[in-house]
Hints:
Layout: H1 25-29, E1 35-37, H2 40-55, H3 73-86, E2 90-94, H4 103-115, E3 119-120, E4 131-133, E5 154-157, E6 163-170, E7 174-175, E8 178-182, H5 183-193, H6 195-201, E9 205-208, E10 220-223, E11 226-229, E12 232-235, H7 240-245, H8 257-271, E13 277-279, E14 286-290, E15 294-298, E16 301-302, E17 312-319, H9 331-334
Parallel strand pairs: 1-2
Antiparallel strand pairs: 2-14, 3-17, 4-17, 5-15, 6-14, 6-17, 7-16, 8-13, 8-15, 9-10, 11-12
Amino acid sequence: xxxxxxxxxxxxxxxxxxxxxxxxxxxxxxxxxxxxxxxxxxxxxxxxxxxxxxxxxxxxxxxxxxxxxxxxxxxxxxxxxxxxxxxxxxxxxxxxxxxxxxxxxxxxxxxxxxxxxxxxxxxxxxxxxxxxxxxxxxxxxxxxxxxxxxxxxxxxxxxxxxxxxxxxxxxxxxxxxxxxxxxxxxxxxxxxxxxxxxxxxxxxxxxxxxxxxxxxxxxxxxxxxxxxxxxxxxxxxxxxxxxxxxxxxxxxxxxxxxxxxxxxxxxxxxxxxxxxxxxxxxxxxxxxxxxxxxxxxxxxxxxxxxxxxxxxxxxxxxxxxxxxxxxxxxxxxxxxxxxxxxxxxxxxxxxxxxxxxxxxxxxxx
Length: 365
């Protein structure tokens, strides 16, 4: 698929966007209505639904929403889903007793919850339908690896899919707290304080694919941070190290001073105490984030020395077939952007979906 970004126009929002997704961290910290707590009855429903799929001999990756009936919890998950798409853009499901299940049973439960929210899509070149966010001992400076699998701080960013879910299996010894921001609030703050830099963030910037290259595409892609399309602000927060590592390609132009200033100011605003929301995980939490409205980050952490106690999150990438229309430039990253289909995820030749139950790290073998 050829790069057509140079032929496109990139309009800006006519003014501050506002709306229910334009929240600030301190106000959200004072509320709890974004936390959906699982009751004993909810957990019983999950166990019964999982048992039904086992009795039918269903592979986890074959499970659909209809295969996983949740008579009482299902409507609550539908409400959570509405919060993601049309409300604040994030939600927490709290209280899953992860230590009560073996790895296979937990994967089945998690996948069953996930299909009530969206359609899972592959997350890496290996076709992994769940990803293990855990330190596997690689260098964060390796341009062919994801820095999510290291213990370093993650700057604010968004993932390449409509919604990301993160299930907490184990906490770090210290640190590793999650932080999120409303991308709408960040946008409106930059518009108010530095509209000249906002113009820069509405223009495409080169981002490294780190080896996950769709057929016929470049080893990098171009997307603006902020996109105004069909009356909606749709954001894509790239990891800053992925912008920097894209500079290794001869065909990628050097970042301009203006781009560096705009990206630095974006980082500054996302970190401000009256903007961001710091969210320490609890074991059994599932964090849901709408990537077009939310950027998320992680603080540096110190891990436990024992492999079985290492900080461990399990990630699902969920496409929303009834989500928002995506700008044409998103095709470079999402490949497929049509509503009613599975959008986003990783697309590389020969990819076969698989379900890895454990992290691919020597500590686990």
